[in-house]
Each structure stands twice: as structure tokens, then as C-alpha cells.
Amino acid sequence: MKKFCFCVIFAMLSLLVFAAEPQRLPMGYGDIQLGMSVDEVKSALLKNHAFGYRGDRDVSFSPKDNQVLIETDGSYAPFSYFGRCWFQFADGKLYIITLNLNDEKVDHYSVFSSLCEKYGGPNQLSPKKSQWQNDAVMMSLERPLALKYIDAKAFAERQDKANVQKTYGEQNRAEFLKGL
User: Fold this and answer.
1) Cβ atoms of 138 and 154 closer than 8 Å
2) Relative to the CA of 79, which of 51, 94, 160, 169 has its CA 20 to 30 Å away?
3) Distance of CA 148 to the CA centre of its chain
4) Cβ distance 66 to 91 under 8 Å?
């Protein structure tokens, strides 16, 4: 009987542990996923009125570096939780989603709590942002109230291509922080 009770208790505890395990980080919001083409994102935006997408007049193109940017404004949609949102593309693929949330309808703490409950605690935490990250995606909640999804691989590639040197001020700050 003791073995049976032990097995039942062990099974129940296992269920609780697995139920509390964080979910895998999302690759985007709703039907809009990192890696989608410009046309796929336009189609998804047209289906979701909360973004306030009005068509091609919300799209801009930079021929210099082959980047496309879609900007939407959900503040005109009566039931939307979004303000201005940006969808950045590089080489024809969506690699950054920036969703500014309407702080009159949702607060930073509620979003942070919900993300922690779903995905566990953030990998990085600062007064300016909380960031969750895995090999595929970086998701950050930034102040005052913006949620970003970034394709980690595409972002790293773009940073490597840019190969930007740190400014003297950035180097000096890094040295100061090392000395603490």
C-alpha cells in the first residue's frame, strides 16, 4: 500500500512540475511570424484589424540595403491593444517585430507577469527591458510598453555585416563596469 501511495504522490508531483514548465518562446505574434515574406505579413495584417494596417501606403523600402519596413497604427482600432507597430524585413524576410502596446488598456506589470508565467523568468533583466532568448528568437518587453520579437540568427548576421566598432564612450563604460 505504501508503494502505491508513493507512486500516486510521485505521479501527481511530476504532473505539477511538467505543468509549470515554461513554454517555448514564440517566433512572433499570432499569425505574424519571423521569417515570413513581405506579402505573407501584409496578408496576415489585413486579416487582423487590431494592427490598423491600411495597405501599401504603410510600407516603405530602402533600396540601399534591401530593407522593407511596414508601420501600422492600431490606436484607431477601437478594441486594439496596439499603438504603432513596426515590421522590419531584411533580404525579404521578417526579422524584427516591434509592438507598442496601448498603456491605457494594459500595463507593463500585467504583460511582464503574463510572459513570466508562460515562458519563465527573463534571461536578462534591467530597468529598461526584460529579455527572453533562445537560439532562434529574442523576445523583449521594453519600457514604457513595447514587445519585440527578433530573429536571433538574422540579427546576429546583420550585426556581423555591420561590424560597427564601439565608440570611445562605450569602451570606457565597459572598462569601468569591469572594474567594479
Assistant:
1) no
2) 94
3) 3
4) yes
